[in-house]
Amino acid sequence: MTSPASSSEVKYLIESSEGNTFDVSGAALRQSNTFNAMFLNIGADGPIPFTDYNEATLKKVFEYCEHSVNEENYSGPKHQDDLSKWDLNFFNEMDQKMFIDVINASNFLDIERLTSYCCERIARMLRGKNTQEMIKVITLPTAEELEAKQKVEEKKAAAAKKVAEKAAETAEKTETLEELPVQQLVQTTRNKLTRKYLSFSNE
Amino acid sequence: MPALPILKLPIIVLMKILKTIDIEDVIPISLCSRKMYHLVKNFRDKSIPLKLRLDGGNPNVPVQVLRPDGFGLQVEVVEGTSGNLEQVNVNGHLVPIYRAGEELDWKTYWDDKEEGIHSVVEYLSDLFGVKKTIKVTLNHYSEVWLLSYIEKRQGNDYELELQPDLSEEDCHFILQNYHPKIVWILWLNPGNFPISQYLESVEFLYSVWKLSITLDDVLNTNCVELVLQHNEFTESEIKRILQHWTIGAFKRLKFLSLYVKDLNLEHVLGDLDGLTLTRMTGKREYK
């Protein structure tokens, strides 16, 4: 962590899942409630590990934070139609995977403004769609897929039931042996051995 | 169309998304699966109170979900079949549904209209958490069965709106046999309908049409709110009503709105002792 004279110019080192580190300004980082709760008062000795997220995702998230440093305090979600050109470009240049990664990282870092904008964007993607289109967008299983899944689960349940029944049967046998008095147990074992022997001699 | 597996997102994010979803998208998303139904039912934006309205003035009896500002969406119950439409599960019934673009109007197709209306009302009532706030609009005598259904469902705790095509005879039959707490009279032919005999069970009466109602009827009213937009009362009658109110003789009345002509308010109010008057600031709107 570097610490120049002005606190607004303080830079923090962030570590990504690849082990790479990069600088983020204190002002940008303070938009993260997670950072505020964990490091703001006690400081950080080395790079701050946000190692559940890759460098590209973290850089994208903090790019947003750097940009909105000078914006007025957050006062609830803004309608997408009211977003600035910069905001729209920011969202439009992300592919779907990056968008999902950014939502997850923003949620973990608890950056309220970015998370809300992302949620509003998803709500907008669903706007005006019929049920089938929504099922496709949110990738829910179709009725056929659900039926197939149910069949697999039924098979699994049946197999598990069989195993359980067998185990119960075995346990019952063991229990019966354990319950016999010692003398009777010896006799039973002898009989079994004799039967085995006799059976052997008959062959 | 890009895929967005929102169910794989953290639950807090999912809750925020569902809270952000517009009211008109709540229905199609709820129909995606049982899981989505419960998620959207629990996490949608509940800050605006909603009301259900059964529009018996329309042959397809749309079940409407209305906001206080009058904005709303509706699900129509069409009797009959339809071509190759997507099928959805409404209250355990697999039915075809049609929505044109981003319109706020869905058409569902049912073999039995009554069963369709029951199912749609129960579905929307549970989804939007509107248990009893239901207004039934009647314009044709043939839809009177809607009142039987609602009274069986929730007793007399509902609103009834009487519309122009009902005859005086129809209105008598309706008010003799059904007892809504709230009555809206938007038009009555030929007018001067003798409403007073039915006022005993009514808590709220709003009429934009002249009714046959006397000063004594007003003085004996059991209503909590009485709005008579076209019944004329004289200055002395108004004074009488206010004196009655001042001595606490109205059992339940909290709001009264009457049509008056050539009224000198100072004359009327000057004779009322021990009364503190405050001018109403807010505008009362009826929708």
From TrEMBL, chain A:
Residues 14-69 form the SKP1 component POZ domain. One of its GO terms (biological process) is ubiquitin-dependent protein catabolic process. SMART domains: Skp1. Pfam families: Skp1, Skp1_POZ. Residues 113-159 form the SKP1 component dimerisation domain. Coiled coil: none annotated. InterPro entries: SKP1, SKP1-like, SKP1-like_dim_sf, SKP1/BTB/POZ_sf, Skp1_comp_dimer, Skp1_comp_POZ. The keyword Lipid metabolism does not apply. Keywords: Ubl conjugation pathway. Belongs to the SKP1 family. This is Skp1-related protein. It comes from Caenorhabditis remanei (Caenorhabditis vulgaris). The lineage of its organism: Eukaryota, Metazoa, Ecdysozoa, Nematoda, Chromadorea.
From TrEMBL, chain B:
InterPro entries: F-box_dom (IPR001810), F-box_Sdz-33 (IPR012885). Residues 3-52 form the F-box domain. It comes from the Eukaryota. Pfam families: F-box (PF00646), FBA_2 (PF07735). PANTHER family: F-BOX ASSOCIATED DOMAIN-CONTAINING PROTEIN-RELATED, F-BOX-CONTAINING HYPOTHETICAL PROTEIN C.ELEGANS. This is F-box domain-containing protein. It comes from Caenorhabditis remanei (Caenorhabditis vulgaris).
